[in-house]
Every structure is written in structure tokens, then in C-alpha cells.
Specification:
By secondary structure, the chain is of the alpha/beta class. The chain is built from eleven helices and 18 strands. The strands form three sheets. It has a seven-stranded mixed beta sheet with strand order 1-2-3-4-5-7-6, sandwiched between helices. Strands 10-9-8-11-12-18-17 form a seven-stranded mixed beta sheet. Strands 13-14-15-16 form a four-stranded antiparallel beta sheet, with no helix packed on it. α1 packs across α2 and α6 packs parallel to α9. The protein is elongated and about 80 Å long. The two termini are 47 Å apart.
Length: 400
């Protein structure tokens, strides 16, 4: 995939450009005051840019498109936060998703470092505020002219898995909840549990855990989102299906299990390779000797990406379109879920993922002490081929 932009460090020769592109972007927003003194402002901005280039705590950069300078980016980093101090793009390249892509990259960096991403936005800049609202930033303070916004990985998770999402997640009898989907899943997991206890990572609303429990397998879960657990509790109480609050990469549930499982691509919700490896190791910690770890995961559709095209259309159903945008450098995918009716309005819901090739998944398993036992295209043991869109993979710990 060809990146739509490039970021390079600013140098002394860039300072006048940085002033001009900031002025052009501000003018296009209609935010230059009537008494604006261009020469005085430019001189001050150029001097400030020189100071920023010399400041080791600040990264002042030029954004390029097709080898042409089109924007300014200023970011500072401390052990406590990543701070977006400024981003301006020339009006001629706005609307292409470049600003969104840059900010999404900064969100991923903040998440990897387990710190917030912070920024200030002027209250007379509604376009920027709408962008930040859409990307999940929340207001944490204000001064005379600006609102102070912050984004954290917990903000993202709460945005994704809130009460509204939990309420509409269950679709009894259809989709993921259809008998032809649930039946084979439960049958296979019950076989692998082999009379022992099962633990579901990211148990959600209990789509699989509830019928597996009703099948006679003792099931526990780990879940990060309280809203999803609240939905589960409408179907099963704590005594029937105990749930430990936390993330699947680090949280320890009480007891020992013969089976740990992750269904419906959930491991891809962990957005770094380190977290995904930690998830394997966490599964191993929960398993008795000879226990198995089962993962259901889709195969990245990179063969469908023509050169220079960063997206694929996954689903086109009445009232619903799924569009996946790929960042092949970071192995990231953002799934854009469009829901719409007969009118002209649509509702957009985004979910970020880190995709994993089957071979990379196998290496993660080896690092955690597992061996590959089987890989099939579905829960009914259909053979896995190069054209399979997803797979069910079973890993097992050695016995003494």
C-alpha cells in the first residue's frame, strides 16, 4: 500500500513554509481576525518555529504528499503523555483523511506507551472539534480560548463497548447467534474441554459462554467492558458464569482450566504484537498441563488490495456496508460499519484491529510454550486452504 503522506523532521529552511501553511489553513477556516498583521505574525511564528526545531522535547515536522510539502505537525512527548501541539494542512489536501490518519497513528503510539494523547482546540474551530469528537477525544479542561481534550485506550474501549453497543450486540437466532453458527462452536469447544473447566477471554455478552454452560461445561470469563457483562447478567448470574473484570492480556481469573478460548477475531482487538503475545502467555498461565488454547480469527485480505488502494469492501448487505482500511506498516485495520435505512443518513461505527497472519500466530504460541495441534477453516473441521477467509486454530500445552 502506498502511504498517502510522509512526515519528515522540519529544518531551518522550512520555517517560512510552516508559517505560510498555518496561515493558509487558518484563513480557510475563516478564523483570521479583521486586523490581522501578516508580517508581524509571520516574523513571530518563524522565530517560534526555529525555537521548536532546537527544542529536543518537541518534534516539529513537515507533512508531505507526493513529495510536496503540504502541512505542519508539532508533537511533544513526556513520560506522562503524548501531546499534539498543532496540526495544519493546506486547504488543497484537506478532506483526504490525512489528518485522521496522523492522529490515529498518535493514538496507537499513546496506547503502546500506556499514556494519554492530549491536545488543545480553539473554541472558534468547530471543524477541528468535530474531528476530535469523532476520534473519541473527551474534554478534560479549558482556558480562556481553548478546550483541553484527551484520548486514552480506556476512552476508546468505552466508546466501542458501551451500553448502547452491548444492548444491540445480541441478535438471538440470527447472525452470530444463529443455531448453525452457535451449534458447531459449542460442540467443538465441549469436545476440547474434555470434561474440564473452560475460560473465555473477552466473554462479552455470553454469546458462546451461555450455550456452552448449558451444554454442561463449567465456564468462566474475563471481560474488560462492564456494559457487556451487564448484558450477560440478564442471561446468567455470577454463580453460573463467573466473570473477572480486566483485559485478556494480563488479567488472572481464579482457578485452573482445561480449555481457554477466544472467538470471533477477538485477539485482534489487542493492537500491538506485544499485547497479543502476552495474551498467549496469559492463556498458558490459566491452563493445566495438556490444556488447549483455541482461537477463531480471520485471514487478512491483503490479496484483495490493488497497489495504492488501502481499503476493501467486506460486506454489502441491505442496510449495512463493511469497509476495512489497512495500514500494512503497522498491521492495523480499521473496520468501518455503516448502518442505514431508507433515508439519506447513515450511522458509522468503527472498530480498530491488529491483523495476524497464521504463521505469526503460530510463533506467538511457541513463545508461550504451545504446540500447534490443528487448524481448520471453520468449527466443523473443514480443511483450511489458502483461500479460507478465517480459521479455527487449536494449540496445546505439553504434558509432563
Amino acid at each position: 500500500m502506498v502511504e498517502p503522506y510522509r512526515i519528515r523532521p522540519a529544518v531551518e529552511d522550512d520555517v517560512l513554509f510552516l508559517a505560510n501553511v498555518t496561515m493558509a489553513a487558518t484563513r480557510a477556516q475563516g478564523r483570521l481576525p479583521a486586523d490581522f498583521d501578516r508580517d508581524t505574525w509571520t516574523a513571530g511564528f518563524v522565530e517560534w518555529s526555529r525555537e521548536s526545531i532546537a527544542d529536543p522535547s518537541t518534534d516539529l515536522s513537515v507533512v508531505e504528499v507526493d513529495g510536496r510539502s503540504v502541512g505542519r505537525l508539532r508533537v511533544s512527548r513526556t513520560p506522562e503523555a503524548v501531546e499534539l501541539n498543532g496540526i495544519q494542512l493546506h486547504p488543497g489536501v484537506q478532506g483526504r483523511g490525512i489528518g485522521t490518519a496522523i492522529i490515529t497513528r498518535l493514538q496507537s503510539e499513546a496506547e503502546r506507551n500506556d499514556v494519554p494523547l492530549k491536545l488543545h482546540v480553539e473554541r472558534d474551530n468547530p471543524d477541528a472539534r468535530r474531528l476530535y469528537d469523532r476520534l473519541g477525544f473527551v474534554k478534560i479542561g479549558a482556558n480562556d480560548t481553548e478546550d483541553i481534550l484527551q484520548w486514552t485506550k480506556d476512552t476508546r474501549r468505552e466508546e466501542l463497548w458501551n451500553a448502547q453497543t452491548a444492548a444491540r450486540y445480541d441478535t438471538p437466532g440470527t447472525g452470530m447467534f444463529a443455531p448453525e453458527v452457535i451449534g458447531p462452536t459449542v460442540e467443538r469447544l465441549a469436545q476440547l474441554a474434555a470434561g474440564g473447566r473452560a475460560l473465555e477471554f473477552a466473554i462479552g455478552t455470553g454469546r458462546v459462554a451461555v450455550p456452552l454452560s448449558e451444554h454442561g461445561v463449567p465456564v468462566s470469563g474475563i471481560e474488560l467492558a462492564p456494559a457487556m457483562v451487564a448484558q450477560l447478567r440478564k442471561k446468567a448470574d455470577e454463580a453460573t458464569i463467573p466473570v473477572t473484570a480486566g483485559d485478556m492480556a494480563t488479567t488472572r481469573a481464579p482457578g485452573e482450566f482445561s480449555l481457554v478460548y477466544l472467538v470471533f477475531n477477538t485477539i485482534s482487538n489487542l493492537l500491538t504484537q506485544e499485547e497479543q503475545v502476552a495474551c498467549f502467555r496469559n492463556a498458558a498461565r490459566h491452563l493445566s498441563p495438556g490444556g488447549c488454547f483455541v482461537i477463531e480469527l480471520w485471514v487478512p485480505e491483503l490479496r484483495r488490495l490493488p497497489p495504492g488502494t488501502p481499503a476493501t469492501v467486506g460486506v454489502t448487505d441491505p442496510g449495512y456496508i463493511l469497509l476495512d482500511t489497512y495500514d500494512v506498516l503497522q498491521q492495523h485495520v480499521v473496520s468501518h460499519h455503516f448502518h442505514f435505512g431508507n433515508g439519506t443518513k447513515a450511522e458509522l461505527f468503527r472498530t480498530p484491529h491488529r491483523y495476524i497472519w497464521p504463521a505469526e500466530l503460530d510463533l506467538m504460541a511457541q513463545l508461550a510454550g504451545f504446540t500447534l495441534e490443528s487448524r481448520h477453516a471453520d468449527w466443523t473441521a473443514t480443511p483450511f486452504t489458502a483461500d479460507s477467509p478465517s480459521h479455527i486454530t487449536t494449540y496445546r500445552l505439553p504434558t509432563p
